[in-house]
């Protein structure tokens, strides 16, 4: 069984786990409302897929 010659530092351990990344939000232009909105989110005016969902 292999044994590491030296101890792995905390920084090296953390660098291996770099699956968490900050990604930019997907923003699309809504033709019906004439404004930008995030994909799969309610617009600021309360519309989702062209229907009023929030008063």
TrEMBL record:
Q: Which domain of life is it from?
A: Bacteria
Keyword annotations from UniProtKB, A to Z: Ribonucleoprotein, Ribosomal protein
**Spans of biased composition, class Basic residues?**
7-22
The protein's matches in Pfam families, at most eight in alphabetical order, are given as: Ribosomal_L32p
Signal sequence bounds: none
Which region ranges are annotated with the description Disordered?
Answer: 1-23
Q: Which residues cross the membrane?
A: none
SUPFAM superfamilies the UniProt entry points to? Zn-binding ribosomal proteins
GO cellular component terms listed in the entry, alphabetical order: ribosome
Task: Please report which protein family the annotation says this sequence is part of.
Answer: Belongs to the bacterial ribosomal protein bL32 family.
What HAMAP family does the database record attribute to this sequence?
A: Ribosomal_bL32
Q: Could you tell me what this protein is called?
A: Large ribosomal subunit protein bL32
């Amino acid at each position: 069984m292999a044994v590491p010659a030296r101890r792995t530092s905390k920084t090296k351990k953390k660098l291996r786990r770099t699956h968490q990344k900050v990604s930019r939000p997907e923003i699309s232009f809504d033709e019906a409302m004439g404004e930008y909105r995030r994909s799969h989110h309610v617009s600021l005016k309360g519309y989702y897929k062209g229907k009023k969902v929030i008063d």
